[in-house]
Structures are given as structure tokens and as C-alpha cells.
Design a protein that fits this description.
Helix content: 25-40%
Strand content: 25-35%
CATH topology: T-fold
CATH superfamily: ApbE-like domains
Radius of gyration: 20 Å
Order of helices and strands: HEEHHEHHHEEHEEEEEEEEHHEEHEE
Number of helices: 10
Strand order of the largest sheet: 1-2-6-7-10-13-14-15-17
Shape: globular
Distance between the termini: 34 Å
Largest sheet: 9 strands, mixed
Amino acid sequence: MRLIRVVCFIIMAFSLAACAKEPPVYQQQSYVFGTLVDVTVAGEDEARARQLIGEVLAEFDRLHRTLHAWKPSDLSRLNAAFAHGEKMPVSPELAAILRDAAALSALSGGTFNPAIGGLIKQWGFQNDEFLPLRPDPAVLAALVQANPAMSDIAVENGIAASRNPAVQLDLGGYAKGYALDRAAAYLRAQGVKGALINIGGNILALGEHNGRPWRVGIQHPRKPSAIATLELKDGEAIGTSGDYQRYFELDGKRYCHIIDPRSGYPVQGVEAVTVVIPPGRLAGTLSDVASKPLFIGGVAGWRVAARQMGIDSAMLIDARGEIYLTTTLKKRLQFVEKSPIVHEAP
């Protein structure tokens, strides 16, 4: 529900523009990757805008079916092969994804780790609904001890294999960003001058709309509204990871889907992390990936993790609602709430 309200916040700005007799923008929503997807195109006539958006949503659906971790897909079949110590042919696209995810995992020091699908499954997050459960600590400890890592995977001549049968891929922290980059590349190739692509809070902006930058809201982790807004430049991407979208509560404690691979347990003490990525070929991917190491780093380690990932614009909200952010991002934000407690880091 919160995601829908954030999108409505963005839509409101579009509606106000329409009231001012400015050229219209065209928007369509769908539900892919387990979240709400919203694609907006500006500067095109309605028929072409609808056709372009339809192509983008069709590509998202293809990726969702290709990269699904627990329903029949190329990825789930690869996981089955790894579990049995078998090799499997993979498409050039999936091979490139595995190599890229491995490089980003290494950059993060292993805190971004798509190989821990086994842990994610144990916590019940490989389901459409999240039921309160407490996994067997011995099972979690064994999975952590097995140390599944992206470096265990080798791809040679189109054949993928893992030297560690505990590797179970879950690209939930990568696929949305990858899809953003795919959509942006397609829309640019089609000559689109203005678009905003939003996949569950991971947003990439192309150009402007009606001569103005796209302004987006950052979801408040505990309220149905934005905590702050900012303008995105052409090609910039913003990504937020929070404990409020995929979680369950048990005995008064919240367990979110972001799991620390070093402990095997969901991260505590953080409500949300937002990163802003400068324009680049992989801006969307980084907007999805880079927030996870910061989230896992927590208040004590988020700034080190940001530097490690090459992130200059970042914000963390802790369990008390206090805000930690870089000077670079603070200069760009307009907070909706008055006088939040802010800790600034250079």
C-alpha cells in the first residue's frame, strides 16, 4: 500500500501540470517483480507513448519469468543444477548477469550476495505471502557455514557451474535495477526525450517533462507519505531498500527480507536506505544493488559501505527514525517533515 501512495504522490505532480495546460504525460502501471511498476512517458503522442510503455512492460514481464528464484524459470533451473553438482547451459544474457552480479558482490565485500537464496527461503521470503516463522537456528548456522558466494560460480563457453552446492541464486536485489537499465536503453534508442521508470521505489529518469526535471518522493518508512523529495537529472537513478515492503512480525519484532549473509539473520536497527546514482550505463542496476550493503552496514558502517560501493549520495534512517546522510545528498533533498533529526557525513 505504501508503494501505491508514493506513486500517487508522483502522479499528483503530473496532474497539476495537466491543469496548467501543459503537454500531457502518459502513464501505465503493472505488477511485476513482486511489486508495483509505473512507467511514464512525456513528449510523445498518446498512441506512441502507449506502444512504448507496452514494450517496456512486456520486457519487465520477460525478465520476471526468466529470473524468478522459486517458480519455474532459467534461474530456478540453474539453482537445481547447482544443488545437484551439475553444469547447465545459460543464455548470454544470464551469463553476463552472473558475471556482473559477482563483480558487484566482490565490490561490496560480500554483503551484497545473490548466492544466499537458501537463507532467503528459510526465512520465508521466497513466497508471495510472508508468514511469521522462526527458522531452525542450526539450519541457518549450517547455511552460513557453507558460505555460498558468487565467486563459487564459473561460467565458461556458455556453461555455468558452482563448486559449492549451497549456492542458490536469488536476484531480487539486482533484477529490478537491471530492468531499469534495459528500459532506459530501449526508450533512448526509440528517441524518447522524457520518461520516468519506477519499479517499486527504484526509479530512473530520462530527460525532463515540460522543461522541468522529474521530481520524485522518497517513501517514509513508517508513514503513508514521502519523507523528502528531490529532482532527478537526466539518466540519474534512485533506489530505496526498506524494512516496510517485505517483512513479517513475530513476538513484537519486525523481520525484513534483507538478510546479512554473515549472520544468516534479517538486519535490525535500520528502517530504510536510499542511494542516488549518477548517469551511466548501469545506473539502474547500482540503484538496486548499492543500497543493500549500506543497509547491512547499519548506523556504524553505512558510510564505509557507501565509499566501498562508490556512492556519494546516500541516506540511512535508523530504528528511531533519525536520518544519516551524506552532504552531497543533503544539498538536494527537500524534507517534507519539519525538523527531522539529521546526522550529516561528508
